Every structure is written in structure tokens, then in C-alpha cells.
Amino acid sequence: MRARTSDGLSLNLSLDLAAPGPMKVKSAAEQLVDRLITSIALGALLPGQKLPPEREFASRLNVSRTTLRDALHQLESLGYVSITRGRSGGVRVHSTWGPESGSHIRSMLLPRWQHLTWLFDLTRTLLPAIAGLAAERRADEHIRKIWAAAEAYTKAEERDHMRAADHALHSAVAEATGNPYYVSIDSQLRIQLTFGTDSLPYDAEIRQRALDDHRDIAAAIEAGDSARAAELTKHHFVDLAEKPMLRLRQRVEAAGAGESG
Where is the HTH gntR-type domain (predicted)? Predict the structure, then answer.
């Protein structure tokens, strides 16, 4: 995946979403089903949430509209989403977990776990460094933008609005470094960590923690406290993104052991 900054600069950071090694070949739609069921189980996509329009969502996931359409129909047949036709219709998440969830998630996570581990390591290193540099280099305009995004997240009620506000905040932190490559890196890490959905894990506890973290990180950057901004950002990532993924892996491994036993 290649992300381009407003200045036309680009970097390429990609976690191959195709599973490594020999295995049963799945269609693009079947692979996307695995990705989306994993995202739903993580809370990145929530029950009742209306998914973005087809064109937008396909672009975000980096798949064709045909692949997305096929995957959504499979998810509907499995009970994970409901599809309503008509002008006011759309696709809404219906269920977080089904009888087949463990199998789909194991198919998604386990063959890619080494790659995800490398990605966690990279993110734990780079995001705190970006926040630390932001605290050293920020200007008043950056501080205003960071606080505005934090406030937008606080006020957001719909999941997609929260996602957009969260993304805006972390992008604003990266912009405060004055280096557009950091903006590109921040965006690409987010996409890779969320399997292309651009939505991190979510529940009421995570939301409250995110609200507190956003304010604390913004305050540290405004105060020019590089060390605190970096440390807060590291724990923000580990606790709200990495640990939920680890817990999900443990859950599906335990379920798999129970099924085989």
C-alpha cells in the first residue's frame, strides 16, 4: 500500500494480507470475509454501525467493489451484517461473534502473526518517536488542530465519526513534526494495524481510555514535554491496539483447542 502526502511525497509500507505459505487458496471475497469478521470481533466494526458506502469502503479496504459486494453477501448469509435495499438502505453490522468466528479469525491471524509481531514492534518504536518530535517542533496552529480533533472525538456519537476524529488527531500530531513522511508513516501504520478498515478496537472502556489519552497527549505536546508525549503514546498504542489483538488471538486459540479436544 502506498500513501501519498499533500506534497506528493510517498512511502510504501505494506503487511501482505495474503497468508504466507502453502494453504487452501481462498478467493479475494473469502479472504475479505476473514478480515471483516476479525475486525468485527475486535470491535473495530460495531453492532448497529452502518458501514460506509460501497465505493468508499472498497477504496478503504483496497479491494474491488465486486469483491466487497461478494464478501458482504457472505457475511449476510452468516448473520454478521444485514443489507437493506433502497434509497435509505445500506449495510449494518448485526453480530460480533458467530459459530464460525473462531475459524475465520484463526485463518486471518495465525498465518500472519509473525508479520503482525513485526508491525507491533515497528509501531511501538515509531509512534512514540513521532509524538516526541511533535512536542519539540509544534507550532500554535498544530496545537489548535490537535485539540480540535480531541474535542471532535469527545463529541462524536457515531462510530465512523469517532474513527475520523481519532485519525484526524493522530494525523495532526504527525503533522506537528513538520515532516510529511511521518504523516505518511502514521497513516500507513494505522491502515495495516486495522486490516484496511482504518478503525481500531472499540468498547466503552476503550473509548473512555482514548478520551483521557487524547487529552493527556495533547497537553504534553502543547507543553513541549517530549518524553511524556512519547511515553503516553506508547501506552496508548499498546493498551488500545496491540493488547486487544493479543487477547483475540488467545480467545480463538483456546476455542480451537476446545474444538479439537
Answer: 26-96
